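One-letter codes give the sequence; backbone shape is given numerically. An example follows:

. . .
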Amino acid sequence: MRNTIIVTGHGTFASGVVSAMQMIMGPQENVVAVDFTSADTAAELRERFREIYERVQAGPLLVLADLRGGSPSNMALEVSRQSRNVQIIYGANLPLLIDLVVNAERENPFHSGTIDEAREAVGLLVPSDLDPSEESEDAAWM
């Protein structure tokens, strides 16, 4: 059984990250985007989470939120207290979502290296510091 993954965040962050993931991996039936735009209220967001949690009766549910303590992660947490087997991961990025999708068949797709892999995907590239004549991983950027 594949785990269900909810991506949530401020504005259209969630639908944007899910769209990017689908461009790379194709459509994923187990991934749902829950945006929180300026037109939404906290009550509407809470209800969207409640509806998804109720629809997904079996298997773990992973919530991937943009920020800890923001309305999307707070509503996911509030609703999950009345639910079962929910994990909330904050600090969402595209490599983290891809890792979770690839491992969605696992009993716990949030494995010990998940956070480390997401952190390693964040870095600084300064083009003026690159030597285009050198063979390196960074040369692909040139």
Observations:
- Residues 39 and 109 are 33 Å apart (CA to CA).
- DSSP finds five helices and four strands in the chain.
